[in-house]
Each structure stands twice: as C-alpha cells, then as structure tokens.
Specification:
330 residues; alpha/beta; Dihydrodipicolinate Reductase, domain 2; four-stranded mixed sheet; 12 strands; globular
C-alpha cells in the first residue's frame, strides 16, 4: 500500500494518483482525498463514475471515507470498453484516468464512452484531440479522439470513441520552446440557447483579442439532450512538431446547471470567464506562461516514457504533482 498525503488536494492530483494505481497495479491510500470530495461535492459524480467503472470491469475497488480514498486496482487488460457515465460527470476525466494504463499495453484499446463531452469540471474534447494528444505524440504516445455527439453538463447524451495505441517511447523535445505563437481562430458552441448569446460572445472575443470576426466560428448544436455553451481559442505554433504545427486550444465551459440540477446560466458571470480566457490567451501568446494544467498533465507521461522534464517545475502545484509521481516510479 502506498500512502499519498495531500496537504492541499485538488482533483487533478486525486485523479492522477488513481491513474498511477492502475498503471502500476499498486494499492494506494490518498490521505485528504475523502475530505476533498466532501468539500467539493461537484466531483462526487465523477468519482462515482470511476467506482462504477472499477465494478463493471472487475478492476478492483475505490473506497471513500471521511478523510481518505483507497484504491485497490487490477485492470483486466487491453480491449474494447463500453462505458456509460453520468450527466454531471466528464468523459474527459474517464479518458485521463485510463490513458496511462492503456498506453502501456502491447495492443490497441478502444473506449466507447457516453456522457458529458463538455463539462466545466474538465477539459473540452478539442483540447484533448488537438492539443494534448499532439503533445503526447512527441513522446511516442498515440491516441485518437472522435466526437460522435455532443453532450453537455446536466443532460449528458454525448458519445466519444477513443483509440489508444501501444507506446513507442521517444525522446521528447521541449515543445513549449516555440518562438512564434498566433491566434488562428475561435469557436463558440451553443446548444439550447439564443444565437444572440453567441453574438455577444463573438463581440467580446473580437474586442479583447482583436480576432477577425471571420475567424470566429459559431456552432449551434441541434441534436444534443440539453443546454450548453463552450468557447474555444485556437493558437498555432510557428514551428512544426512531428511534421505538423502544434495547436493550443484554450477554452472555457459555461455551466448551464450546477451538480444539483439547478439552472445557473448567467451571461454576466460567463463574460467574466471569457475575460479570464482572454488574459490566459495573452499570456500564452506573449510567452509569459504556459497554462499550468497542461504541464501538470504532461508530467505523468514524461515519467512513463523515461523522458527528462525540460520545463520549470518550481510552482506549488507542479511540485505536488512530482511528489505523487516519484513513489510509483522509484
């Protein structure tokens, strides 16, 4: 049993420890994990999905008490896995839970997952498919993401297929050292909302980031099960990574509902989120900072492939991520 004591736990750390437990087939106790779930009830449906997945595939068990989360894992191997997740959860979180393990097998695996594709609790599918999976290719890790149907937080009904291929570890270059970054466009996704909402968001993006309105695409989803709104900024690198430019997708998911099912869509609050997105975009374009969540997610795969960490990890959250990785890779 590995004990991981989290003084200041967050969801990324908890999910990464559970992923490492699966990858290394080691039992783990996350001290502070149970308290985090109690204090952040929005994540309860996500970890409930994890528990259900473990039960369905006889992969061990996840036990939550007042203070700790205990995980005893024994995943059955590669294969095709059909997964149903809840309408207040996140398909992306399920993918990230299983991805390190599935990359370690000698044969391809397929995840067919139904649920929420666009959740305020996690990354948008565009970030996974167009940014994160491209980054992983530089380390010899390959996965493909196909969105079959949108599913929004509070209603679900989305469908995604993810194919995960055996790892071919490669020496990863510092892909964050590109000199030239520029905004190539933006995408506004709405479902069950007035097109006027998208128009106001388009105007704000154009004003804050000086994006030509012709480069801002609006997608109105007509076949989803409920209301949703996502805004995504596309940033292209000037250098080529693995024969194609690296694209950063920065985003904000506008929650229509809370985890209790109450309608909370608020345009004024969403404009604040868009202003945060504009600032995050400016920081990246001006080379001031890479979003920390990208670096935190990338670390586990650098360890998995035996690569050197080539970026600065001197922040509280990056140090915390390194601290949970080391016991599993000693």
């Amino acid at each position: 049993m590995i004990d991981i004591a989290l003084q200041d736990p967050d969801w990324i750390l908890i999910r990464q420890v559970l992923s490492l437990s699966l990858l290394k087939n080691r039992s783990v106790r996350i001290i502070g994990g149970g308290r985090f779930i109690r204090e952040n009830i929005a994540y309860k449906p996500v970890i409930d999905d994890f528990i259900n997945i473990f039960q369905k595939f006889k992969a061990g068990e996840i036990i939550i008490d007042e203070e700790c989360i205990t995980c005893n894992s024994q995943w059955p191997g590669f294969g095709i896995f059909n997964i149903e997740s809840g309408k207040y959860s996140s398909i992306t979180e399920i993918i990230l839970l299983l991805l390190p393990l599935l990359l370690s097998y000698d044969f391809r695996s397929v995840l067919n997952i139904r649920g929420v594709t666009n959740s305020p609790l996690s990354y948008t599918g565009s970030f996974l498919s167009e940014t994160f999976f491209s980054i992983l290719e530089g380390a010899g890790l390959f996965a493909g993401y196909v969105l079959k149907r949108y599913g929004f937080y509070g209603s679900g009904g989305g469908e995604v297929e993810v194919r995960v291929y055996p790892a071919e570890p490669a020496v990863a270059e510092n892909i964050f050292a590109n000199d030239q970054l520029s905004i190539s466009g933006a995408r506004i996704i709405i479902s069950g909302l007035s097109p006027a909402v998208a128009k106001r968001q388009r105007d704000l993006l154009s004003e804050k980031l000086h994006i030509d309105e012709k480069k801002i695409c609006t997608i109105e989803v007509l076949d989803s099960d409920g209301m949703g709104n996502s805004v995504q900024i596309f940033i292209e690198s000037g250098e080529k990574i693995n024969l194609f430019p690296l694209r950063f997708v920065l985003y904000r998911e506008m929650a229509a509902y809370n985890c209790a099912g109450d309608l909370i869509f608020d345009e004024n609050e969403n404009f604040k989120l868009l202003e945060e997105l504009a600032k995050e975009t400016d920081r990246l374009i001006n080379r001031l900072s890479i979003p920390e969540y990208i670096l935190r997610e990338y670390l586990i795969y650098l360890f998995l492939t035996g690569n050197e960490v080539l970026f600065n990890t001197d922040t509280e959250r990056l140090r915390a991520t390194l601290s949970i990785l080391r016991p599993f890779f000693q």
